[in-house]
Amino acid sequence: MDINKNIIEVNNLVKKFKDFRAVDGISFNVKKGEIFAFLGPNGAGKSTTIKMLTTLLAPSEGKMLINGFDPVKDQDGVRHSFGIVFQDPSLDDDLTAFENMYFHAVLYKVDKNIRDSRIEELMKFVELWERRNDLVKTYSGGMKRRLEIARGLLHHPKVLFLDEPTLGLDPQTRNHTWSYIKNVNQKEGMTVFFTSHYMEEADKIADRIAIVDHGKIVAIGTSGELQKKTKTKSLEDAFLSLTGHEIREETVGGIDRLRQRSRIWRR
Amino acid sequence: MSTIYILWLRQIKKYFRSRSRIVGSLGQPLLFLVAFGFGFGSIYSRAGEGNYIQFLSPGIILMSVLFTAVFSGIDIIWDRQFGFLKETLVAPVSRMQIILGKTLGGSTVAVFQGIIVFALTLLLGFKPQGAGVILPAFLITFLVALLFTSLGTAIASTLEDMQGFQLIMNFLVMPTVFLSGAFFPLPDLPPAIAFITNINPLSYGVDGLRGVLTGIHQFGLGTDLLVISVITAILLFIGSFLFSRIEI
Fold this sequence. Notes:
A: Rossmann fold, 10 helices, 41% helix
């Protein structure tokens, strides 16, 4: 295995929750500079895999290397190597956008001398610099996403993880978000690993796609390769042919209801 | 150090930004001071115990410190629900530092709240012994704040959401306040109640603060400080341990 070529290496990764195997023996490599997508329905094990790669969950079995570091043995090494945008917002609503960025910069020990200029550079990049002193709770969903992307890039990570980065955003904001991500990938050669259950996103954005279903990788390849392999004419048909079902569209209601309820509680 | 500082700073900023929360949380101590202080005042002095406001004020100060402290600790549940906890958990810093910063921030905020209520008691006629008591009073208040922030942290680390919140309020926070000697003198209580007040750490906090501010002592300052410090250390340890085991 060549560390210089593969920035992520995963071998036979398993995560069990009691008897349920959420991730069931997954293996794949991601090359440096690549945009790699995990495509699969909700509950396929995509988020669980990201959590294990990013040290939030301990794996039950298997081996992982991120940027040459093992997430089980060398958490800090791994944590310095990646930036992440979670599926749900992870900003502090009661702080300003700048303060959220500053907080991150301190936690990741971004050099004091470049701290402010780096924050400015990134906030300009995602076009939020003008609103840096506004509380995040006044931001729209799309703006929050952009701020999270900027924050994820603050400490010059080698890999950017994005867990369903466009979930709940309107189509226009979605396109906008992806153009930022593409831009970073091309300009800084940063590896991007994202999960999605939007077929067209994986098709358009990713260099290679892993189709995930029931905790297993069913197939890996470029969109073209997957179509060729299944003798189909679109990624959608390829997905159907590989998994035997369509990607399930799921309501996003549950977590939103929870948030609303807790907001009422808070008063 | 910078990690502890930034987490501390976050708590402070959030506290001073929520002015409505600060003002709102003064309602309860004010009500207690007025209703109990003036309501029971005449009976208390007729029983030969002196001025009830003098007796009650330190208890009310620490009651608001306790509320603010426990809720600051319980903040972790909000951080979990609103996702911010993940941001701190994937950062390349030790969880010990995170929890220390958060706990110190929560305690600082609780002490602030205590100072505001202290000012309130002065307005209502509370007369402390003199300016020399400020430092020891401050120390006791801070220790009590630290103790109950750690308790809140420990509890919050084991809870997934706010479902258990009411349980904590009714079976832990309220009994701790009411069975602590904050409202009534501890001698001559029925044995069962006396037992509870004796194992209640707030009893020692209230006794310490009351002793320092007014000279009325039950356990003695040395005992008070020892008990609070030991329990604080234990809770801080348990809190950090439980926090370090959080998985998302």
